[in-house]
């Protein structure tokens, strides 16, 4: 069975940050890549959506309430799918071994849950978009919950004048 690398990144503008390293490693190991795009929920829109959904639910409009609650995730999923198609087009040489998954949760839970369901992953690569702030991801906590090797990809240092 072919090896799989899990590239974990924050969904959005920095999706591709650190991905060139994952591509090079995948080519070297002759491995496939699974991209885990993590989108953390936005508090303000969640509250407004929850209140609107509650109003519809009280009125007996349960289907409308559910649609309101899932609309933001649907839109985010559409945007993520478009980004993945663009990434596949850009990296055609490995596109047949490139898949993705979208998670709407915190980083630690998303990785842990994904690995429970996808045991074929051999290594976890953490994007710089998740490691730039020390409080975003706790690698020690992650190591307690998973048994796969973890590689944190950092941003290149800027030369000072």
Describe what this molecule looks like in 3D:
This protein has 161 residues and is α/β, with parallel strands linked by helices. It has one domain: Rossmann fold (3-Layer(aba) Sandwich). The chain has 6 helices and 5 strands, in the order E-H-E-H-H-E-H-E-H-H-E. The chain has helices spanning 19-29, 43-58, 62-90, 107-117, 128-131, 139-145; strands spanning 4-10, 32-38, 98-103, 121-126, 150-152. It has a 5-stranded parallel beta sheet, sandwiched between helices. Strand 1, helix 1 (19-29) and strand 2 form a beta-alpha-beta unit. It is elongated.
Order of helices and strands: EHEHHEHEHHE
Give the biggest beta sheet: 5 strands, parallel
Number of domains: 1
The CATH homologous superfamily is termed: HUPs
Alpha-beta classification: alpha/beta
- CATH topology assignment: Rossmann fold
Helix percent band: 40-55%
For the record, give the distance between the C-alpha atoms at the N and C termini, rounded to a whole number. 49 Å
What's the CATH architecture?
3-Layer(aba) Sandwich
Q: What is this entry, summarized?
A:
This protein is α/β, with parallel strands linked by helices and 161 residues long. The chain has helices at residues 19-29, 43-58, 62-90, 107-117, 128-131, 139-145; strands at 4-10, 32-38, 98-103, 121-126, 150-152.
Keywords:
48% helix, elongated, Rossmann fold, 5-stranded parallel sheet, single chain, alpha/beta, 161 residues
Write the layout of secondary structure elements.
Blueprint: E1 4-10, H1 19-29, E2 32-38, H2 43-58, H3 62-90, E3 98-103, H4 107-117, E4 121-126, H5 128-131, H6 139-145, E5 150-152
């Amino acid at each position: 069975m072919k090896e799989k690398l899990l590239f974990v990144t924050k969904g959005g503008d920095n999706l591709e940050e650190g991905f060139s390293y994952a591509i090079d490693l995948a080519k070297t190991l002759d491995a496939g890549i699974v991209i885990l795009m993590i989108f953390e929920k936005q508090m303000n829109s969640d509250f407004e959506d929850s209140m609107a959904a509650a109003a519809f639910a009280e009125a007996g409009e349960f289907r409308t309430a559910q649609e309101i609650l899932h609309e933001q995730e649907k839109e985010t999923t559409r945007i993520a799918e478009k980004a993945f198609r663009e990434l596949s087009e850009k990296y055609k040489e490995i596109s047949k071994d490139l898949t993705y998954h979208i998670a709407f949760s915190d980083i630690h839970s998303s990785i842990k849950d994904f690995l429970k369901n996808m045991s074929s992953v051999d290594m976890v690569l953490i994007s710089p978009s998740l490691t730039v702030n020390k409080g975003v991801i706790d690698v020690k906590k992650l190591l307690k919950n998973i048994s796969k090797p973890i590689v944190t990809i950092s941003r290149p240092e800027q030369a000072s004048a």
